C-alpha cells in the first residue's frame, strides 16, 4: 500500500503550511486511490501525519490484472518525479478545535531551507538501497550541525530540511557548516535563508516566511548559500561577507527580493 507525501513549503499552490499526501492500493484488477491535504507534526521518527479533511477517493477498474499493475507503476513514478517522498506509517484524521485561532503565537526567526542538488538523478543512479544509506548520512550530518548551532528542526522533505533559528548569524554559520559537511558525502546542496514572522499553535506552524525561505533556496546554485535582504539587514554589524546576487522574482510571490550570497 504505497503512500507518498509532498511538503507544502516547496509548492506555490498552497497556503500556510498545508502539505499533500497520496495513497494507492491495488486489489486484483482494481486500483484504489486516496489523496488530500495533510498536516505534518514533528520530525524524524516522531513525525505524525494527519488528514486535515477526509481525503478524496477514486476507484479505477481495469479489465485485467496487468493493466492495473501498469497503472500503479506509472502513477508511483509520476509522484516520485513531482517531489513526493515515500511515506511509512498511517495517516490519521484529527478533529480541529473550534478555538484554534485564539491559540496562535507570532514568532520572529531566521528560516533555513536546505536540499540536495539533482537528488532525483543521484537516486536513480545509486538505486534505492544505496540512496537510503546516503540520505541517512545526510540527515545525520545536517542534524549534528543544527544541534551545534542551536537550530530547531521543523520538518523534512524527501531530500531537504526546514529549520528555524533565533539568531541570523547562527543560521548562516550552520548553513556553511552543512555545506562543508556534505563534501565528505559527495553531495552538493543549496541553502536559502530568510528572516520573518510565522505563527505557532502547539506543534503546528504557518506563514509566508516559510514559502519565501524555500523560494530563496530554489534560486541558489549548487554549493551556494543565499540569504534574503531581510537576513542581511539584520547582520549589518557581522563580519560575515555577502555578495549581491541582484533582485529576483520569487515564484508565487508578488514582491521582488534582493538576494545575497554568503561569501566565506
Global mean pLDDT: 81
How many domain regions?
2
CATH T-level fold name of the largest domain:
Alpha-Beta Plaits
Question: For the record, what is the CATH homologous superfamily label of the largest domain?
Answer: Nucleotide cyclase, GGDEF domain
Record the SSE blueprint.
Layout: E1 3-6, E2 19-27, E3 30-41, E4 48-51, E5 56-61, H1 65-81, E6 85-86, E7 91-93, E8 105-116, H2 119-126, H3 128-148, E9 152-156, E10 160-165, H4 168-183, E11 189-201, E12 204-206, H5 208-219, E13 225-228, H6 229-234, E14 242-249, E15 256-262
Parallel strand pairs: 4-7, 11-13
Antiparallel strand pairs: 1-2, 1-6, 2-3, 3-4, 3-5, 8-10, 8-11, 9-10, 11-12, 13-15, 14-15
Amino acid at each position: 500500500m504505497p503512500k507518498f507525501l509532498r511538503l507544502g513549503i516547496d509548492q506555490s499552490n498552497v497556503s500556510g503550511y498545508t502539505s499533500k499526501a497520496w495513497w494507492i492500493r491495488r486489489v486484483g484488477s482494481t486500483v484504489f486511490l486516496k489523496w488530500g491535504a495533510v498536516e505534518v507534526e514533528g520530525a524524524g521518527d516522531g513525525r505524525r501525519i494527519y488528514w486535515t479533511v477526509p481525503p478524496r477517493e477514486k476507484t479505477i477498474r481495469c479489465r485485467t490484472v496487468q493493466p492495473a499493475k501498469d497503472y500503479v507503476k506509472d502513477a508511483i513514478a509520476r509522484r516520485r518525479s513531482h517531489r513526493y517522498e515515500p511515506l511509512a506509517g498511517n495517516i490519521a484524521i484529527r478533529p480541529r478545535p473550534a478555538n484554534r485561532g485564539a491559540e496562535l503565537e507570532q514568532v520572529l526567526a531566521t528560516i533555513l531551507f536546505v536540499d540536495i542538488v539533482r537528488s532525483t538523478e543521484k537516486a536513480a543512479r545509486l538505486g534505492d538501497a544505496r540512496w537510503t544509506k546516503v540520505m541517512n548520512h545526510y540527515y545525520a550530518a545536517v542534524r549534528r550541525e543544527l544541534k551545534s548551532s542551536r537550530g530547531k528542526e521543523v520538518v523534512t522533505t524527501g531530500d531537504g530540511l526546514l529549520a528555524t533559528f533565533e539568531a541570523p548569524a547562527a543560521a548562516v554559520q550552520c548553513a556553511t557548516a552543512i555545506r562543508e559537511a556534505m563534501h565528505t558525502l559527495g553531495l552538493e546542496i543549496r541553502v536559502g535563508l530568510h528572516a520573518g514572522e510565522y505563527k505557532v499553535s502547539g506543534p503546528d506552524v504557518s506563514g509566508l516566511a516559510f514559502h519565501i525561505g524555500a523560494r530563496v533556496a530554489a534560486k541558489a546554485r549548487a554549493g551556494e548559500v543565499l540569504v534574503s535582504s531581510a537576513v542581511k539587514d539584520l547582520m549589518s554589524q557581522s563580519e560575515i561577507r555577502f555578495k549581491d546576487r541582484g533582485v529576483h522574482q520569487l515564484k508565487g510571490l508578488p514582491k521582488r527580493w534582493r538576494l545575497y550570497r554568503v561569501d566565506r
